[in-house]
Write a structure and sequence with these properties.
Length: 346
């Protein structure tokens, strides 16, 4: 969180200097232009377009109530509960942790959410049918991470190797998805090395409608635990703060960015099933520009199912029963996504 606080302070200092020279008519023009583009009336804060949380609530038929005045707010309807806190990039949607691209800002007694977060993260989840043509979902490519002379993460204490378990989970998932009626292709079916671009080329040749990359996590401190899910960072947004290598607003439009709307929906549904079924700590739905997510030409998700470096989780992953549970959770995420897409086509 220190990195988030520092970022916010830099924004505030820069914005304070900038605001000294900004005319009120300029601010009005910014709000008017923003409304024309997105339907929101936005304000420019710390170099980023923001929208008031109350406006977001109104757009999606939610009521607002303060949990802590000026600090934490709840947006709620019969089926949806969202919680936002000032100076935080963590947003909770129906009890699930999602990471924003920009910190929530407190201004004049109200909380503000980044416009791009409202449009590219919340809107796909709350209004999935708002993005035109609904993609097909027939062919699924499963990508077992690592392989060959690339072992991935390891736990030397327990003799655990990531490449072994990603392949095992992938094969279990393949059987489950075929039973659901999907055409399934694996990027590798044995212990061999594949370059990242080779993986997405397999997906292209298979004309994949969905790409799932399976991984297991590790950290230098063995106490760290939990499950997390990644989708591609949208253009002109920052990746999740834990991803230190990728914190800039990248302007490049990658092939995977064509599916930002559907990536957000897929990531949310996949992460919900993983958290609910694996009973591990919720480390959040995050965004990052992983190469396979950038270059694949279909909606895609990268799953970090558990931490091999955590002995308790590693021992679970070492059992066939728990790997089957992981595969079932991912399959449930696919099923939920397929059901949503089918309902939008009616």
């Amino acid at each position: 969180m220190d990195r988030i606080t520092a970022r916010l302070r830099r924004y505030r200092i820069g914005a304070a200097l900038l605001m000294l020279g900004v005319l009120s008519c300029g601010m009005a023009a910014t709000a008017q232009n923003s409304r024309a583009r997105s339907g929101y009336s936005s304000v420019r804060l710390f170099g980023v377009d923001y929208v008031e949380a109350g406006d977001v609530a109104q757009r999606f038929g939610l009521t607002t109530s303060w949990i802590t005045p000026r600090k934490k707010i709840r947006l709620k309807s019969e089926r949806t509960t969202i919680e936002l806190a000032a100076d935080s990039v963590e947003m909770w949607v129906n009890g699930l942790k999602l990471f924003l691209g920009e910190p929530v800002v407190s201004r004049n007694g109200e909380l503000f959410l980044g416009l791009r977060d409202a449009e590219q993260l919340l809107r796909p989840i709350l209004s999935p049918g708002s993005s035109g043509a609904v993609p097909a979902l027939r062919t699924i490519v499963i990508d077992p991470g690592h392989g060959g002379d690339d072992p991935g993460n390891q736990n030397s204490r327990l003799k655990l190797t990531e490449k072994t378990y990603t392949l095992d989970v992938a094969k279990r998932l393949e059987r489950l998805l075929k039973a659901q009626g999907f055409r399934v292709v694996l990027t590798r079916t044995n212990d061999r090395r594949l370059e990242l671009d080779d993986r997405t080329e397999i997906a292209r040749k298979a004309r994949a409608d969905l790409f799932i990359s399976i991984h297991f996590n590790a950290f230098s401190e063995s106490r760290v635990s939990g499950t997390e899910t990644f989708v591609l960072t949208p253009r002109l947004q920052r990746s999740s703060p834990q991803a230190e290598r990728d914190t800039s607003m990248v302007s490049t439009q990658y092939p995977g960015n064509k599916y930002d709307h559907w990536n957000a929906l897929l990531g949310y549904q996949m992460h919900r099933q993983l958290v609910q079924q694996l009973k591990l700590e919720d480390r959040g739905l995050k965004r990052f520009r992983y190469r396979v997510l950038c270059t694949v030409d279909c909606p895609a998700v990268l799953v970090e199912a558990a931490f091999l470096s955590n002995d308790a989780e590693g021992r679970k992953v070492a059992t066939a029963a728990y790997r089957q549970q992981i595969a079932e959770a991912i399959a449930a995420g696919v099923k939920a996504n397929a059901a949503t897409l089918a309902s939008l086509r009616r």
